[in-house]
Amino acid sequence: MKKKSKDSGYLGNTYKDGEYIVRQGEPGNCMYEIQGGKVVVFRSEGADEIQLAELPKGEFFGEMAIFEHGVRSASVRAVGEARVLTIDKKILLRRITQDPTLAFRILEKMSHRIRELDTEIAKLKSTV
Amino acid sequence: MNNSNTTEKYKLKDGSRVAVIGGGPSGTFFSYFLLNMAERIDLKLHVDIYDSRDFSSDGPPGCNMCGGIISESLVQTLATEGIDLPPTVVQRGIESYMLHMDAGSVQIKTPTQEKRIGAIYRGAGPRGIKETQWESFDGYLLGLAKDKGAHVIKGRLEKVIWKNGLPEIQMKGGTPLTYDLLGIAAGVNTSALKLFEDLKQGYTPPKTTKTFICEYYFGRETIEKTLGNSMHTFLLDLPRLEFAAIIPKGDYVTTCMLGKDIDKDLVQAFLTRPEVKRCMPKDWKWDEYVCQCMPRMNTKGSSQPFMDRTIFIGDCAVSRLYKDGIGAAYRTAKAAVSAVVFEGVSAESFKEFSWPAYKKLEKDNKIGKIIFFAVGLIQKIPLMRRAILKMITTEQNRDDHPKRMSVVLWDMFTGSAPYRTIFFRMFHPFFLASFIWNIVSSIRIFRRRKS
Ligand SMILES: Cc1cc2nc3c(=O)[nH]c(=O)nc-3n(C[C@H](O)[C@H](O)[C@H](O)COP(=O)(O)OP(=O)(O)OC[C@H]3O[C@@H](n4cnc5c(N)ncnc54)[C@H](O)[C@@H]3O)c2cc1C
């Protein structure tokens, strides 16, 4: 499934357009960082796919698996070719225990996402 | 009251001036994270980074003399911090290790099948480099610190004195300048550390040993055919040699030897070994390198890498024994920043809030020394070497087989795990039982072949 990049200097894995990186419902023990390209995050509700976000280079996804035990809450697919680095739960949690400031950026991103969700909820409530 | 006045005196305020001596990894990590953390608490600092090198130059003027392996754990940690290493900086993503011994060679694949180790150049590359598509790692980090607001100034520190309780520094040919804090990140290949030792405020430079690095030009095609995307490491019975590696980069190959005071005889003894020749191109000549140096490496950290208003970071403070020095530069930089921003810049603050993280590295190195001693013994006994080869070959050929020896060696060579973790893995009853079983079966195979 994973294609090794032809270019010798790329780190992580390269995913082709439409290739799954994460599947909803699967257990997770790592998070991911987008090193190049874009990914789309979506939830499957019956036969429907509901797009939740499109994430560019520099963004994380799958970070809930670092702090919770549940299964993946959504699927993630590459949009065009995407280069993605896996960040292991164990390595990350050990480093955060040694240096809690390492978690600041993850918290910042999560807080940003909550802010966006708040806006979405407010919009939805005003239309109901 | 008096106590809190002293504490306040040592806190940085808006407009405080910080000088960082050295623009290598520890100096740039320190500057970058200092400005980052200060921004989070709305503290406005002025940070000047001084370095005498030009990282865009090829050969010695731009090079910080290193094997250039960025460990798996550091690649992941930096990504979490928002620092990606682009393919313009990473010359090759490493996806496996080849272990070479007299008994044979075996490939140890990354446990995740993913390229998460980067091979980089610290400057523009070896002397006379023809390619320009790659950026220097140190230059890239310096650029990130600059984007955060640091001022990068070319200069060599020549003098330090204390004036009215503040450090005053002078660069070669410059005028004296006063700062509220000095971040010393000058490495160990410098005379600058003597300036601080001479202040007699408790700083003693780390203990070091001489190492060897040389660069060969092979061209990309030859590298693909011979070394590939693997880092090549060696377990050989050569006295004083603790670790040797051959690392493929863009068009070049770096050879790196670490141990006890590496000299020319040991270099020749290593480079002419059949195990080394086996992984190099056919017409390769060991003494036809384009660039070589014998830098010093930290083997025992400073016993007091801090003073009032001065914190030492990276190699000139503490590092990791024989591996992941850049990772140690990152850790010490982060530990220094936390103390500076939240606790103050007195020797007391550094002792209480930065020193524990530094000491942890030093403590781990002590375990590392035991591991290297054990590996040294194993290297001397052919039967043991055969058992290692057999154990790894079985592990790598069977997906369902527990990868005990592979993981131990992977972590040792990549610097991905602390020595403490490796030690506990090595002395785990299952590991020992499996190793003993492989020794016994190696004896049997040997006897059968003989008879
Ligand atoms: C042979 C060898 C191989 C190695 N391989 C690896 C490896 O593969 N991976 C790894 O992670 N680590 C490796 N290391 C260790 C790594 O190189 C160091 O741990 C790392 O460079 C430390 O960073 P630093 O910023 O503390 O010091 P340095 O990288 O030495 O940087 C110090 C900087 O200070 C500047 N400076 C010095 N004096 C002055 C002055 N008076 N005024 C102004 N500026 C000054 C220098 O120009 C330099 O830029 C290796 C080391 C050796 C010797």
CATH homologous superfamily classification of chain A: Jelly Rolls
Annotated CATH architecture of the largest domain in chain B:
3-Layer(bba) Sandwich
**Counted beta strands of chain B:** 21
Percent helix of chain A? 25-40%
Strand order of the largest sheet of chain B: 6-5-15-16-17-14-18
Q: And the CATH topology of the largest domain in chain B? A: FAD/NAD(P)-binding domain
Q: Please compute the radius of gyration of chain A using only Cα atoms.
A: 16 Å
CATH hierarchy, class of the largest domain in chain B: Alpha Beta
Helix content of chain B: 25-40%
Report on the structure:
The complex is a heterodimer of chains A (128) and B (451). Chain A has helices at residues 64-67, 89-98, 104-127; strands spanning 13-15, 20-22, 30-45, 48-55, 60-61, 75-88. By secondary structure, chain A is α+β, with helices and mostly antiparallel strands. Chain A has one domain: Sandwich (Jelly Rolls), CATH 2.60.120. In chain A, β3 (30-45) and β4 (48-55) form a beta hairpin. Chain A is globular, with a radius of gyration of 16 Å. Residues 1-6 of chain A have low confidence and may be disordered. Chain B has 451 residues and is an alpha+beta fold. Chain B has helices at residues 2-9, 25-40, 72-81, 137-147, 192-197, 220-225, 264-271, 274-279, 325-343, 347-353, 355-380, 382-397, 404-414, 419-426, 429-450; strands at residues 17-21, 46-51, 69-70, 90-94, 96-101, 104-109, 117-120, 151-154, 157-163, 166-171, 177-178, 181-184, 207-210, 212-217, 230-234, 241-248, 252-259, 291-293, 296-300, 306-307, 310-312. A 7-stranded mixed β-sheet of chain B has the order 6-5-15-16-17-14-18. A 6-stranded mixed β-sheet of chain B has the order 8-2-1-12-21-20, with helices on one face. In chain B, α11 (355-380) crosses α14 (419-426) and α13 (404-414) runs antiparallel to α14 (419-426). The model of chain B has no long low-confidence stretch (mean pLDDT 92). Residues 21-27, 50-53, 64-69, 156-157, 185-187, 189-190, 192, 211, 213, 256, 258, 295, 297, 314-315, 319, 324-327, 329 of chain B line the site of flavin-adenine dinucleotide (FAD). Residues 21-27, 50-53, 64-69, 156-157, 185-187, 189-190, 192, 211, 213, 256, 258, 295, 297, 314-315, 319, 324-327, 329 of chain B line the site of flavin-adenine dinucleotide.
